[in-house]
Amino acid sequence: MTNHQASVFVNEGIFGIFDHGEVPAESADWSGSLIAPMSAGAFVRTGINTGNVQVEVRTGDSPTEWEDEATALVWSPTGNLRIESVVGGPQSDLPVLSQSGPGRYELEVKARGRRRNPDASVLDSAEVYRVSLRPSAERAAPMPAVSAPPDPDEEARRQRLLQE
């Protein structure tokens, strides 16, 4: 089992897992409570708004109890996914997560302590996050979202429903 730990500065309630420093924030899917995947990498939502949290990168299992757990598929176009503070940059004490190079990965984040100081500013919070990344069976690049062509009969159906 390998274990690396670092204190990560959180701003606006998030830290990142970014690929080569790129932050495609406009593509973030905020529907999850812990992970917000993006077109490359992901944001991790914290309990505190501002301050430091402990992040560990671990391979292998441990019997530690976690309060929150989530998984998401993330894309790494350059194969350089790293834990980063949104304002402080990459955490040099933590290894590159995407050890298999460019491709899709299954990101797992486990957390505890997120409910102790919700949305507070805490210099050194009690929050702890465990991040692990495994290559996904699907290694191809994600397809860009394609919208369906407009249905010419849709407006007529809508008008009929409004009249009823």
Q: Please provide the count of β strands.
A: 10
Mean pLDDT score, rounded? 88
Q: Structural class of the helix and strand makeup? A: mainly beta
Order of strands, main sheet, comes to 1-5-10-9-6
Spans of at least 5 consecutive residues whose pLDDT stays below 50 are: none
Major sheet description: 5 strands, mixed
Q: What is the gyration radius calculated from CA atoms?
A: 19 Å
Give the topology string: H per helix, E per strand: EEEEEEEEEEH
Instruction: Kindly report how far apart the N and C termini lie.
Output: 65 Å
Q: What is the percentage of strand-forming residues?
A: 35-45%
Percent helix range: under 10%
> What's the helix count?
1
* Shape designation: globular
What does the secondary structure layout of this molecule look like, with pairings?
Layout: E1 2-10, E2 14-19, E3 35-37, E4 42-45, E5 50-59, E6 68-76, E7 81-85, E8 89-90, E9 103-112, E10 121-135, H1 154-163
Task: Walk me through this protein's architecture.
This protein is 6% helix and 45% strand. The chain is built from 1 helix and 10 strands, in the order ββββββββββα. It has one helix at 154-163; strands at 2-10, 14-19, 35-37, 42-45, 50-59, 68-76, 81-85, 89-90, 103-112, 121-135. It has a 5-stranded mixed sheet, with no helix packed on it. A 5-stranded antiparallel sheet has the order 3-4-2-7-8, with no helix packed on it.
What key attributes describe this structure?
164 residues, mainly beta, 5-stranded mixed β-sheet, 5-stranded antiparallel β-sheet, 1 helix, 45% strand
In short:
With 164 residues, this protein is mainly beta. Helices cover 6% and strands 45% of the residues.
